[in-house]
Specification:
Blueprint (H helix, E strand, L loop, with lengths): L12 H10 L9 H5 L2 H17 L3 E5 L5 H9 L4 E6 L11 E4 L12 E7 L8 H11 E12 L4 H8 L1 H11 L19 H10 L2 E9 L10 H11 L2 H13 L8 E8 L1
Length: 269
């Protein structure tokens, strides 16, 4: 697995675009079986599909679709729906239904008020200007349409890194000492390291109403840059008995403002 770190200056829009267009070994681009072997991917995908079943949209955009797993699974369940996946580096066509589009979430190739639903899962934290992406999604969504969002939550590395910068500082120190340049720009690709309350404010300021939200848990969650531990996590926590236990734990702890991810279901005002 390639390290989930920037090769260039994450503040440079051209460097960001090059990174996402050329990073073929990214964990978000994995094929379905491998992608869903990550317990957190499996849990957030199941949650989003459950909410989509309740909404039952005739048209769906997965903005920042990665490998297209979610878009493909929704299309298989709803072959009559128009289903699109958009990414700077989209997958090749994997099913007959989803149209995978190479595009920028900040400049969607859709007319005004043309979509009934959009998903933006683990995407806007990667952007220098998430408000611009949300404004563009609002433009393309019909009145009353739904937007499903997941972002990193308080109980994850983003929380600690966002408050202290310790991982970035450690990576820079290792680079200067000549030990390794792997983490010279930090340990992940998240430009926004915010708590759910801050995300909710950004979302509502862009003209959405938050109708439902919840944290999503996985204990213990292992980040991708710890390769051997990540492989062990997938092996131990992917089987169905462990997955059921994790879902039960998620339900029991849902009252707490923690979790690896936070889920928002929003409507366009």
């Amino acid at each position: 697995m390639a390290p989930v770190t920037f090769d260039g200056d994450s503040r440079d829009p051209r460097a960001l675009e090059h990174f996402y267009r050329s990073f073929h070994g990214a964990p978000w681009r994995q094929a379905k079986t491998e992608f869903l072997s990550d317990p957190l991917n499996a849990q957030r995908t199941a949650l989003i599909l459950e909410r989509l079943e309740r909404i039952a949209p005739d048209s769906l955009l997965d903005a920042g679709c990665g490998g297209g797993v979610l878009a493909g699974m929704f299309a298989e369940r709803h072959p009559g729906s128009k289903c699109y996946g958009l990414d700077l580096n989209p997958p090749s066509q994997g099913t007959d239904n989803p149209a995978f589009i190479a595009g920028d979430i900040r400049a969607l190739p859709f007319g005004d008020q043309t979509l009934q639903c959009a998903v933006c899962s683990e995407t806007i934290e990667h952007l220098a200007d998430p408000d611009r992406a949300l404004a563009e999604l609002r433009r393309a969504l019909a009145p009353g349409a739904r937007l499903l969002i997941t972002v990193p939550n308080l109980f994850c590395l983003d929380s600690l890194e966002g408050r202290t910068g310790m991982f970035h500082a450690a990576g820079r120190a290792l680079h200067r000492a000549g030990v390794t340049s792997r983490f010279r720009n930090g340990i992940n690709t998240h430009l926004q390291k915010l708590p759910p309350s801050a995300w909710e404010k950004i979302i509502t300021l862009q003209g959405f109403a938050v109708e439902y939200q919840q944290p999503v848990y996985i204990f213990p969650y292992i980040p991708y840059f710890i390769g051997p531990a990540k492989a062990l996590e997938k092996k131990l926590l992917s089987p169905e008995p462990a997955a059921r236990a994790l879902r039960a734990l998620d339900g029991a702890l849902r009252f707490a403002p923690l979790g690896q991810l936070h889920f928002f279901e929003c409507s366009k005002r």
